[in-house]
Amino acid sequence: MKDDLVLIIDFGSQVTQLIARRLREFKVFCEIHPFNKINDEFIKEVLPKAIILSGGPASVLDNNAPKPPSIIFDIGVPILGICYGQQIMVKMLGGNIVHGPGTSEFGKSYVNKKNESILFLKDFFETKNEQVWMSHGDHVSRIPSNFEVYGESENAPYAIIGDVNKHFYGVQFHPEVVHTLNGKALIKNFLELANITFKWNMKAYLEHAIHIIKEKVGDKKVICALSGGVDSSVTAILINKAIGDQLTCIYVNNGLMRKNESEEVIKLYTDHFKLHLIQADEKKLFLSNLLGVTDPEEKRKIIGKLFIEVFQKYASEIGEVDFLAQGTLYPDVIESVSFSGAPSATIKSHHNVGGLPKKMNLDLIEPLKELFKDEVRILGKELGIPNKFIQRHPFPGPGLAIRCPGEITNMKLEILRNADEIYIDQIKKYGLYNEIWQAFTVLLPVKTVGVMGDARTYDYVCTLRAVTSIDGMTADYYPFDHAFLSETSNKIINNVVGINRVTYDITSKPPGTIEWE
Ligand code: XMP
């Protein structure tokens, strides 16, 4: 597989991982390495079959502009420079870059074809003006000798350039993002020109990931917090496959899980995958600390803090540990980096294990850091995790605490669990589960009057939530038909003691959020 490596040299673009994702979609093996970790020896050792230079926030006009080692231009492999990557290639090969009025473009733009008779442009220009996505402040003002120009945009006279003999190509826009409508064609053409074989698959990724984990961990010990969610489960099962019992997992039962959830995930981890699992039954601790707490942020903070304390307590029983495994995905990494550098408002303090590595002085292992959610699901399948687990909707760290606005009591949690079970079963029965990003029930801190069997009732209201979304950042409510809603409402009211009214939440995000707290 290494024989067909495409090396992506990263200059810090927000979308570098998208380049890798596109390559994987074409079944091509690639590795991303930051520019400052790459030197002549590295290139000679890995011998990539093609190189892609990513975009990045720097300007090649800066004194210390990041550069790839110049050896990459001498080893006879095709190179594709994207945005900053194009500019640094041009500069290193003797061209020129300028900055000033009329050198920038951000967002949607159009490239006019100047000459499309080269293989690199096959299937790219559907019209004379092809839509692309730009994000640049400087632009190329003179191309190196042997290069030709193949496309121009309003503020980038050299939007597509190439040296067709050496197969060096440069584009000012980002072919890896979906807003560049035919960007995939360029990437595919480049790979074909590099004679790459399109044979990579998730099985190969799995083998590669196992190899990397083994090398990194050696004979040391790793701990992992399991939540029952897809990301932490795939992380743990993958690491377990690589290093077996050197991994210890800790599952904290905080009493805020859904009906039968803890039992089911524990069964999967221990019976099916034989993970070395410590079960921390801390239901009482969490619930007693949440008693009387109604403020959503306070709830989140209490749960986050307790989680760290409990995790530390159980981890200290394992003895010397060097690594903490986390199921961080690529979108989590982007979200945590602010584009503008400006601090963003805290809408909700997310509960995750982010505070742990610093507190415990542990190195991180994040084997999913390069993947997107759908890729993690494919990897999970490759690891043999049952579909039922892989397809699960996301579940927040603070669990049912944030689906129970107002004070949390055992009785309310019980009512919520029962209603939620019926709702999710209904969604599955109607075959809608995989169409929906996330569905759950919220128990409102409100009682209303009803009538059942000629008698007055005075019970809680619950609301049903179901949203569609790509990444959880924005969302819309799912348009259930009325028959589904009334059948579900009847089932809940008839079967759940404590609820006499059901509503459906039709708020999108924004202005709402997915969870209620
Ligand atoms: P919101 O409610 O912010 O949620 O629109 C977006 C997505 O994030 C999940 N969520 C969390 N996940 N820890 C998590 O791991 C948290 O503290 C947390 N809060 C919200 C939420 O379920 C939705 O998928």
List keywords for this structure.
517 residues, alpha/beta, Rossmann fold, five-stranded parallel beta sheet, 15 helices, binds xanthosine-5'-monophosphate
Query: What's the number of structural domains?
Result: 3
Structural class: alpha/beta
Q: Quick one: CATH superfamily of the largest domain?
A: Class I glutamine amidotransferase (GATase) domain
Strand content: 15-25%
Question: What best-fitting shape do the alpha-carbon axes yield?
Answer: globular
According to DSSP, the number of beta strands is 20
| Count of individual helical segments | 15
CATH-defined architecture of the largest domain: 3-Layer(aba) Sandwich
Strand order of the largest sheet: 2-1-3-4-11-10-9-6-7
Bound molecules: xanthosine-5'-monophosphate
Work out the helicity level: 25-40%
CATH topology annotation of the largest domain: Rossmann fold
**Could you name the CATH class of the largest domain?**
Alpha Beta
Poorly predicted parts:
337-344
Radius of gyration: 27 Å
Largest sheet: 9 strands, mixed
Mean pLDDT metric = 92
Secondary structure layout plus pairing:
Blueprint: E1 6-10, H1 16-25, E2 30-34, H2 40-46, E3 50-53, E4 79-82, H3 84-92, E5 96-99, E6 105-113, E7 129-136, E8 138-142, E9 148-153, E10 156-163, E11 168-171, H4 183-193, H5 202-217, E12 222-226, H6 230-243, E13 247-253, H7 261-272, E14 277-281, H8 283-290, H9 296-316, E15 323-325, H10 330-335, H11 356-360, E16 363-365, H12 373-382, H13 387-390, H14 410-429, E17 438-452, E18 455-468, E19 476-477, H15 482-495, E20 499-504
Parallel strand pairs: 1-2, 1-3, 3-4, 4-11, 12-13, 12-15, 13-14, 15-16, 18-20
Antiparallel strand pairs: 5-8, 6-7, 6-9, 9-10, 10-11, 17-18, 18-19
The chain binds xanthosine-5'-monophosphate (XMP).
Xanthosine-5'-monophosphate binds at residues 348, 350-352, 394, 396-398, 438, 472, 509, 513-515.
